[in-house]
Here is the input.
Amino acid sequence: MGRILVCAGTGCVASHSRQVTARLKAALHAHHLEERFQVDNTGCHGFCEQGPLVIIEPEGILYCRVREEDVEAIVTEHLEQGRLVERLLYQDPVTKEKIAAYNQIKFYRQQSRHVLKNCGHINPENIDAYLAVEGYQGLKKALALPREEVINIIKESGLRGRGGAGFPTGLKWEYTFKAPGDRKYVVCNADEGDPGAFMDRSVLEGDPHAVLEGMLIAAYAIGAREGYIYVRAEYPLAVQRLRIALAQARERGFCGERILGTDFSCELYIREGAGAFVCGEETALLASIQGERGMPRPRPPFPARQGLWGQPTNINNVETYANVPLILRRGAGWYASLGTEKSKGTKIFALTGKVKNTGLVEVPMGITLREIIFNIGGGILEDRGFKAVQIGGPSGGCLPAEHLDLPVDYDSLTAAGAMMGSGGLVVMDDSTCMVEVARFFLNFTQAESCGKCTPCREGIQQMLAILTRITRGQGREGDLEQLERLARVIKGTALCGLGQTAPNPVLSTLRYFRAEYEAHIRDHRCPAKSCRELLTYHIDPDKCNGCTRCRRRCPAGAISGEAREPHTIDLELCARCGTCLDLCRQKAIYVE
Ligand SMILES: Cc1cc2nc3c(=O)[nH]c(=O)nc-3n(C[C@H](O)[C@H](O)[C@H](O)COP(=O)(O)O)c2cc1C
Ligand code: SF4
Ligand code: SF4
Ligand code: SF4
Ligand code: FES
Here is the structure.
């Protein structure tokens, strides 16, 4: 029987994939094809920009941006007559070639999808679909081993936490296992607060059982009988799928009392967070689960010794847990063979910004930034010049072209002034102002600071004020040194990771793009022509035909000139709104 997979991840649902599913079911019925084809919903394929996606299996033909009106053509042309519906096929942005098979598309061909393997291919609301792809085999295997042996397997695999800091997972489990206490907890950090990041959401929506299985293996290994998944309430579909998965896992004996007939019992619960970025920090998250205000506290004691309600608690990220069943099933040796010496396995990135293919990509550790951006991502939009890539979320760093061949692993990124973070990767082209980029990210961390400690609360605000002045052309001599001083103090004295890493975008842009800061301060010029208040608008008299369009529409009355004569702009009056630039058909207006 053929399968028609319709993506039901958040991105595709937002572009009406549910209606496509309904229409497909109705069309199969009307064409008497229900015996030959089955419609199934899946989680996100990571290619949301092309959604709603429909895949016809077993051939693996991918149709993109499918609307309800397209369903009839898919049924009559493809299913009945065996002809591809050309107009719905994916078009390679570089070669312009139409590509039919999902696994031939460069975006997918160059990835190593292990954690994301099931996402987009199984129905996440059906436990049998997960069981059919060896689901819960990792748990079965773990339960047959002594706890220490399970911990050793994770240690040998080299798995490091995917939530940001890259702490060795096996070691963390061992600390919790060895910590004194009868009551222990496992916690899954599904807060995912980085703007633009949706790796964890996609895993939860597309393969929720993998995360539950990883948590249950961890619970067994450390000796926990209870666990919590802390997921942001802004992820309603992820919450819904987790609830369904949890109910099914309980029903089938994978969760709850005497799991799989052994004497291991563990209950998992879901807690919804209100979406504060700081609640992703582990001690704030634990406070929030306990019903307290989500504020970080000093560490030590680390959660492995004193976590939830003062008891030893293992906290890992969604992607970290999703790796665990794979390691148990395929072995630590297999896992350790992927990646680099110190960064094993794969990493999922949310590739966004000025790149041709945006979406979720899973790549082996050690791949270069160039391979991700130019091979998988297809290069820069409109074939403009590459300027920088911001990696590691709001506290990450901006790396310039000279680092395109940097291997993507924890240590190389940190040495270059960026960090792995949870997997945000924002590509910037030559029209991006790096001072503005630094200001943008600092604006985010400043707004999200919980205010508990002075260096972060006051210091970030000071840095933001300086950056804002610079982007408005009011920078002063000494500003850059002052920014560096403040950054050093905040990094060294802030209580939690939010403050300690918030200056990173400023420091990395100062390190690689200092001349751009200097141009703003000394010449009152934005080299990228992006900072509005530093731009001047001019009319080229040789190109202007005096059509008067700009003069009639200028909101500041800054343009003068007689009809059919070249016009001029009064820079004193110009409000730099850009209206005239967009209006002029002669391209007579230019910006300096
Ligand atoms: C401000 C801040 C926000 C964080 N947000 C997240 C998050 O959304 N998800 C996450 O897994 N870890 C986040 N972390 C890291 C966690 O504190 C913690 O290190 C992580 O959950 C541990 O899991 P891992 O070892 O599997 O990476 C954040 C840290 C800070 C300082
Ligand atoms: S560093 Fe910032 S977010 Fe962290 S505790 Fe201090 S004020 Fe709160
Ligand atoms: S719109 Fe362009 S061509 Fe027309 S008057 Fe203005 S500058 Fe000249
Ligand atoms: S940028 Fe705006 S304010 Fe300035 S001249 Fe053009 S239309 Fe007028
Ligand atoms: S939601 Fe459909 S591809 Fe991401």
Remarks:
- The two ends are 63 Å apart (CA to CA).
